[in-house]
Amino acid sequence: MLIGVPKEIKSHENRVALLPSGALALTRKGHKVMVEAGAGEGSGFPDEAYEMNGAQIVGDAEKIWAEAEMIMKVKEPVGPEYKRMREGQIVFTYFHFAASEALTKAVMDSSCVAIAYETVESPDRSLPLLIPMSEVAGRMSVQQGAKYLEKAQGGRGVLLGGIPGVKPGNVLILGGGIVGVNAAKMAAGMGANVTIMDISLPRLRQLDDFMPRNVTTIYSSEANIRERLPYLDLVIGGVLIPGAKAPKLITRDMLKLMRPGTVIVDVAIDQGGCIETARPTTHDDPIYIVEDVIHYCVANMPGAVPYTSTVGLTNATTPYAVQIADKGWKKALRENRDLVPGLNVAHGEVTHKDVAGAFDLEWKPAEDFIN
User: The whole model's pTM is what?
Assistant: First the structure.
């Protein structure tokens, strides 16, 4: 199979979908790999490293899209790439379809085969290709939140960890999944008072067992959120329903309960955000203010730490990519059931129920395509 790795063109997206070692793993099995010139440089992997491991460096993204049987990316295709997708071509990347009807329609119109990293699912219901970036985003959310709490950035002027004689900041984390756990670890490590909210009592019990003493677990409800908003310094949204739009847990009117200069970091923005006033931002222009509350909603947060993110992501994605290349996508899905929920769109049909539900589209089960 011919695998193509174009350079990411989303704003400040420096990650790359394949390491030189991944190129070697594929070429050793007889596959061909084309990498766009400069695709790995932002993550610290020069073109020469790919060439030494059997990949061909190509200067033209159009050639890669036109010839590759499988495209490997990090972020979803953006405007200029919509017309480059073609019938039968496998596109293996993060898609987050529920956040964009335009992207969903473009992929349907192309008749390509869209396998989404974020919905590949293990038998234990974990999301192995989303976990690494959720770990990065969860940790970065506290880092960015702490920065924008500084007065020079428009924040309340609060040091999250406090100092002797001065109380620490208060952090609320919505969602006790991978993002929430990693955010809590970082915030607690700084010395902040941390509250994690979730609707799963078993999960809250589990978190209560291993989180440090400055982390409190509370059942998530509108009343409980409203009660705490006036005392918070930082809110982190980490809610995830795989493939579906995130629920809106903080509405615009609730912002009025918060103190001026409070910071919201909505990590769920890839799936539409769990804050009603959230909209995607970029690393070029990361924040905006609504009701005197700072909103940080960068949709590709891990792109700011591309070396860590690229290595973490490709450790997880490359074995699946090798299976798809070796067997073809249909056989790979039949033999590795983790990949079945990853199929979101195929030959113009939506194959993930939650994506179809997000836009009232007809749903056709993935099984219909692989059996």
Answer: 0.90
